[in-house]
Amino acid sequence: MSARNVIDFLRTVASRAEVLDSLKVRSKAEVMAAAADFGFPFTEAEFDPLIWDLEVHLAAKRKETFDNRFSMWDTMWGIYYLEYLVKDMITSFEDTDFEIVMAAQAKTS
């Protein structure tokens, strides 16, 4: 459920520019507290591996290698990490992509 909360929270932020503007300069702990306030609680231990796995999945989807030459690193240059997550990474996926990553995580935990 927490993986779904991360995704739903990021999608919510992606659809609300004023929320993104408010949160993009906040610490990870503050962003997680805001997520809980929105009804999407998750921990850092749940957030970090999901985001990593989503980035790996995105590289594979784009037929790129997930290394220091991954094209999304250039996209991140000059923006806040939360902006990258909600404007570039999350919007690159369809629901089936999220399901694939969450299913793979469930198998390894």
Tags for this entry?
globular; 109 residues; 71% helix; mainly alpha
Structure characterization notes:
It is a single chain. It is built from seven helices and no strands. By secondary structure, it is an all-alpha fold. It has one domain (2-108). The two termini are 13 Å apart.
A few lines on this structure:
This protein is mainly alpha-helical and 109 residues long.
- Average residue-wise pLDDT: 91
Oligomer: single chain
The helix-and-strand class reads mainly alpha
What is the strand tally?
A: 0
Poorly predicted runs of 5 or more residues: none
End-to-end Cα distance, whole Å, is 13 Å
How helical, in percent, are the residues? over 70%
- The gyration radius over C-alpha positions equals 13 Å
Largest sheet: none
The percent range for strand residues is under 5%
Can you tell me the number of structural domains?
1
What's the SSE pattern?
HHHHHHH
Categorize the overall geometry: globular
Count of helical regions: 7
